[in-house]
Write a structure and sequence with these properties.
Elements: E1 2-4, E2 10-17, H1 31-38, H2 49-57, E3 62-67, E4 72-79, H3 83-95, H4 101-119, H5 122-134, H6 148-153, H7 156-166, E5 172-178, H8 182-193, E6 217-222, E7 228-236, H9 244-255, H10 261-268, E8 273-282, E9 287-295, H11 300-316, H12 323-340, H13 344-358, H14 364-373, H15 376-386, E10 392-398, H16 404-410
Parallel strand pairs: 1-5, 6-10
Antiparallel strand pairs: 2-4, 2-5, 3-4, 7-9, 7-10, 8-9
Helix pairs in contact: 3-8, 9-12, 9-15, 10-11, 11-15, 11-16, 12-14
Length: 411
């Protein structure tokens, strides 16, 4: 997929693989993320990590990768006249990794330290804890990086088996955004990515999950700390849900900016938190809307009550949304969408994820048109559907011993 941006001097090439931790089993938990690390250790043309980094540095580029629950991507960003080198290096490292056993053993220590870093950083860890309680019983609730024990158990043959199942042309996508022409880019993509042989394992069936929740759920991760972190949220639908635009407006009203309800009520009026925000996470078959707050442990109950009051107030109509709030929420979404797409890598992410999972991509202009159409009635409808006790989940990290300290509030 090519997104020309003629006014720019840079180009980002991103290679996507439609797989992530949701397709793993417990024995090799974290293998998607581990494999992401290993492709940077060398390919056929650039056999060491240093060879890869020197090739990218030589064109003044930057490179990185990411792993989620259902996708993995790798990118190189460089000036537009270096796009061929970017494709050459990227295709070599991702499609032909050496996967040296010595490098695998060394990298295990790096990943285990990465896991430890997240454990020691609650503001980064709280999202994983929230998904553990929301998706309990299936791989969507597992930590993307795995566990120290699962990482230690992964061998070279595990990578080879995993790649055979997931790393084949039918499950991959190349996106290129920046100051390039479509014709030249297609030619280069054909040169560097079309030779990758298809070894698709036809026995593999993509996992889908139906979340059946009948009551509020709580998960407490006890940690001695000066601040408590929590996410209070509600289960929602997956990527293609028709009400997703109305839900986006609802999330913006609640916690989309410094004038949003959660920010004003939790931070400005009561001084309960520095950071507070409401956001939506979607996977192919499920998702959720949640509000994050970092607060003094002694005031966690009060902050939680304020957040819950806002959810209930909108769903019951006791705290109605004004016409001005609706307009402001829409402009907030459209403005932040425009700002987020000023970088070529972000443009790849925007179009790539849509195309990978939905088979098509709405342009920013089309999304803005959908947002403008949303009525107050549609927002209220989504609030009433979402904000019910049977869909509610709470995750907390802090110096708390058990769930009873919060269960009375959410029940």
């Amino acid at each position: 997929m090519i997104i020309p941006m003629p006014s720019l001097e840079s180009t980002t090439v991103t290679l996507w693989v439609k797989t992530g931790s949701r397709n793993e089993n417990k024995k090799v938990g974290g293998i998607s993320h581990f494999l992401e690390h290993m492709v940077f250790k060398g390919g056929k043309k650039h056999p060491t990590a240093r060879d890869i980094s020197e090739a990218v540095d030589a064109i003044g580029g930057e490179f990185n990768a990411g792993t989620s629950k259902d996708w993995t991507n790798f990118y190189i960003k460089a000036s537009k006249d270096k796009v061929e080198t970017a494709m050459d290096v990227l295709s070599d490292m991702v499609l032909s990794p050496i996967l040296s056993e010595d490098e695998i053993e060394r990298e295990k220590g790096t990943i285990i330290q990465e896991i430890a870093m997240y454990e020691d950083t609650p503001i980064m860890k709280i999202g994983e804890v929230y998904e553990e309680v929301s998706f309990s019983g299936n791989p969507l609730g597992w930590d993307t990086a795995g566990t120290p024990s699962s990482v230690k158990s992964i061998k070279r043959n595990d990578f080879l088996s995993y790649r055979k199942i997931h790393y084949h042309p039918e499950n991959m996508l190349v996106t290129v955004a920046g100051g390039i022409s479509e014709a030249s880019c297609l030619k280069l993509a054909g040169k560097y990515f079309s030779e990758f042989p298809s070894e698709q394992n036809t026995d593999f069936k993509e996992k889908t999950f139906k979340i059946s929740q009948t009551k509020p759920q709580i998960k407490i991760q006890t940690k001695k700390s000066e601040q408590a972190h929590f996410i209070l949220g509600f289960m929602s639908e997956g990527r293609g849900y028709k009400g997703r635009f109305a839900q986006s407006v609802l999330a913006s009203v609640l916690g989309g900016g410094m004038s949003s309800r959660m920010f004003i009520e939790v931070r400005e009026r009561r001084g309960l938190a520095y950071s507070v925000r409401t956001s939506i996470e979607r996977y192919q078959d499920t998702g959720y809307m949640g509000t994050y707050v970092g607060t003094d442990p002694k005031k966690a109950n009060e902050a939680l009550s304020v957040v819950l009051e806002q959810y209930r107030g909108i769903s019951t109509g006791k705290l109605p949304i004004s016409g001005e709030e609706l307009k402001k929420a829409k402009e907030f979404i459209k403005g932040h969408l425009a700002l987020s797409l000023e970088d070529t890598g972000a443009v790849n992410n925007y179009f790539g994820e849509q195309y990978l999972f939905l088979g098509k991509a709405q342009t920013p202009e089309e999304v803005c048109e959908e947002i403008d159409k949303i009525s107050l009635e549609e927002v209220y409808l989504e609030a009433k559907k979402l904000f019910t006790p049977t869909k509610m989940n709470l995750a907390v990290i802090g110096p708390f011993k058990n769930e009873s300290e919060f269960s009375k509030i959410i029940k």
